[in-house]
Amino acid sequence: MHQAEDHSALLKLSSALLYAGSSFLITVLNKTVLTSFRFPSYLCVGIGQMITTVVVLYAAKKSKVVQFQDFDRSVLFKMFPLPLLYVGNHVTGLASTKKLSLPMFTVLRKFAILMTMILEVYILRKTFPKRLVYSVVTIVFGAVVAASSDLAFDVQGYTFILLNDAFTAASGVYTKQKLDTEGLGKYGVLYYNALIILIPTILASAFTGDLHEAVAFEDWADVSFTFCFLLSCIMGFVLMYSIVLCSYYNSALTTSVVGAIKNVAVAYVGIFVGGDYLFSWTNFLGLSICMSGGLVYSYLTFNSTSSAGKTEEAQELKS
């Protein structure tokens, strides 16, 4: 029993680290594609990531590497409302990435943690120890302190990011709920989520003129841009997989907090890279408060897992 618990603790930690790493990388990649190369369509970046997810998982299913149920009418009912939440999350996330500087993007993303905690209480009927609640409040307080110094205030950008927080929270909680659905599992949730929303997103992109702008983009022949775009598509799949994996082995809230710690790391990098960060000590202090709250949460969460394993071992020795 002790070995199984250790294995579980390792899976929890490794899935969290995979999510943090892939999330960090894709934020920088998306910022590079949309801002540095001035690619005009954040929708088309999302479409590329969805197509990659569908192709990779379809090939894996055909070659018997992974298993999930074939498509039928029941899949739509099993997946609802996840695809709608994912569209909202993806579009508002990419739009806010384009509108805001990296540090302010990462600061305002912290409100998704508080929203996730509230939704887990109401939808999944979870309860949280006071120490975890305090650490989450510390993260959000740090975000408020950091955001108070934003001299590059953008109403549209702030609206997108707060909507993104709400979609992220709801998507995380419902993903955790859907992972236990018979016939779907981790890979089914990922595959059908991307497949269901792919065609509507392409139609929306064509209708708004986004698709035309993307096709007409002049830098497709630029090797460095094409490489960054393709890498963004691949990392989009890796990110979606890592989110599902982290939620599966941990909780939607832990996934959200791990994302917050990653975001503070991105903010620190943004001080030196990107050129659109206006440094202030207030902002820096807020980021540091966020990081402190996130590290305390992580310590409490992952330490309790290993403590549970030691307790079970002690009980086994006594019996």
List keywords for this structure.
13 helices; 319 residues; disordered N terminus
Helicity level: over 70%
Radius of gyration based on Cα positions = 20 Å
Mean pLDDT, to the nearest integer, reads 83
Largest sheet: none
Helix-and-strand structural type: mainly alpha
Order of helices and strands: HHHHHHHHHHHHH
Describe what this molecule looks like in 3D.
By secondary structure, the protein is mostly helical. It has one domain. It contains 13 helices and no strands. α1 runs antiparallel to α11 and α2 crosses α11 (223-249). The protein is globular. It starts with a helix and ends with a helix. Mean pLDDT is 83; it is low at 1-7 and 311-319. The chain crosses the membrane at residues 9-27, 39-60, 75-95, 107-125, 132-149, 155-175, 187-208, 220-245, 252-273, 279-300. It comes from Scophthalmus maximus. It is a multi-pass membrane protein. It is found in: Membrane. Its main location: membrane.
TL;DR of this structure?
This protein is an all-alpha fold.
Write the layout of secondary structure elements.
Blueprint: H1 2-36, H2 42-62, H3 73-79, H4 82-99, H5 102-108, H6 111-123, H7 130-147, H8 155-178, H9 185-208, H10 210-215, H11 223-249, H12 252-272, H13 281-318
